[in-house]
Amino acid sequence: MTAEPQEGPLAEALAALDRLAEERGMVLERDAPLAPLTTLRVGGPADRIATPRSTTELRDVLEVARLASIPLVVLGKGSDLVVADGGFRGLVIRNRADEMYGMDDPPTRWVIASGAPMAMVVKRFSALALSGLEFGISIPGTIGGAVWANAGAHEREMRDVVHGVETLDPRDGTTRAFDVAACEFGYRDSRFKHTPEVIVEAVIEVAPGDGAEIAAKVEGYQAHRRATQPLADQNAGSVFRNPPGDHAGRLIDMAGLKGFRIGTAAVSDLHANFIVSDRGGRAGDVRRVGDHVRAEVAGRFGVDLEYEIEFIGEWGGDGQWATPTSRTEGAR
Q1: Are residues 192 and 177 in the same domain?
Q2: Could you list the active site residues?
Q3: What is the pTM of this model?
Q4: The domain containing residue 37 runs over which residues?
Q5: Tens of pLDDT, residues 240-262
Q6: Contact 241/310 with Cβ under 8 angstroms?
Q7: Is the torsion defined by CA of 250, 254, 258, 260 positive or negative?
């Protein structure tokens, strides 16, 4: 990434952000590396990073960002995400808000902060013998990111367990509450992918169950994931959405692309719908591999694969890429 601008709108926004953060005792990291904060471990730095650890702090950071008019992106566990080698110009909010509490007696509806790791929530529910979210153990992100993408596994999706969502719009500070119908969930999609609204918390509905059966199901899902996904390698998760009636991994495998490599990135030999990166890898190589895979599958089978992963940051102009860069502000 080029040096921090000394003049212009971004320089003014960064100066305003620094001033407001100092006034409010908010800690910001400057020119901070993003690669270690993602599961793929590629990409350049961010001008600023804030790390809220509660929903109150998350709201405060979003308010400061709004007042400073700074470009922002919310980062959860950093899965399903490719940060450009040029980094991200503006503010990255590393969401670590993870509080959760039950609403009922006995609690079957839980308010969960968007930065809560999915694995932590699943294990908490398992310990309480609450069923419904076991599939989430195969989702490597946060509650907010999973809702944002309507993530799913094992024939289940987040829309099956979401009762409601609260968001904050960084454009005007407006807080809104959505029931499940208003979330407009689709396959790996929701309304939140298409608006600047940031998910602050979600209400998840579960049901009492047999503790031993729930634990066994969670362990079974974990074992399946370990056996079928390249968890020992740096990866961002499933790269492409499954096309209707088929699986992206099957098509990529049939095209003979397992092991296909460009520079520091390659299609996984274990699961064809994963791209793995070498240590010190380059985001540009990951994107080139993905675009090559899309072109090959389209040419051989007439199927246009759609990316499930998101590309953010300074990519040097979309004209050099086969696919556009994401402009979303979700919580991955």
Answers
A1: yes
A2: 188, 238, 308
A3: 0.92
A4: 9-94
A5: 999 999 999 999 999 999 999 99
A6: no
A7: negative
